[in-house]
Amino acid sequence: MDNPETTLVDEIASIPRTRKHFLAGAAAAAATLGLAPMAAGAASLENAGRGMKESPQTIINIAATAEAAAVTALYHVHVAVDRGKLGIANIAVSENLLVSIVRAALREEQDHLTFLMGAGAKPLYTSFSFPSGIFREAQQTLEFFEEAETIFIAAYMAANKEFAAGKMSQLAQYTYQIGGVESEHRTLMRAGLGQLPPNNKSFETQRYGTVMGAADTLQGLGIFKPHLKYPGAAAVEHLLGTTADRKSSAGVVQRKP
Q1: What is the pTM of this model?
Q2: Which domains are assigned to the chain?
């Protein structure tokens, strides 16, 4: 039987449109460890980062798990929208805008996952459970993702602090860049719900002292129970490239750090 981690890596790295993002993550890991780029594929962050509560490897593994979960949920939301099965009552944006938000978020979360996998991340889970209502009613979708993004933001904040403590400035930058996008997602979900103002924080909320704290929260929400499998990078590319504007970029203009 194939190793699920190897299968994921091979699949992501084999797709031309995602390979460059995968290699960018590999180069980032290699640079962090002081390796030549050609050695990036074998780079391990397990023993790097002195002065940190968690190893860099643990941090990026948890981050990749959260990103895989986000991709899985957004992929199935997109499918529901495309099939006309997602009710849009009680939301404050048009269907076209909702589709645009979902598509861009799906693109961005897959790019995050691809980058992290290139850096050597190994998702802890690749099958997830979500409230069934998020695939039927847009209001529930937006409410769920507002909560999820708040968790992701706090997780990347903890990661940023950890990497700073470990004097790993490049990884601190990357987690800041990803966390910033998650903050945009949270605001968009609030806007979709008609919550005013959607941008309601001067400072994002610090919830966790370690990234594992975020993983524990997601575990408590039941997200890590097996049900829906991560669809794979190829499926994401196909869905984005054959629906709506048929652009696999989904309008996202910066796809690498």
Answers
A1: 0.92
A2: 4-28+51-242 (1.20.1260)
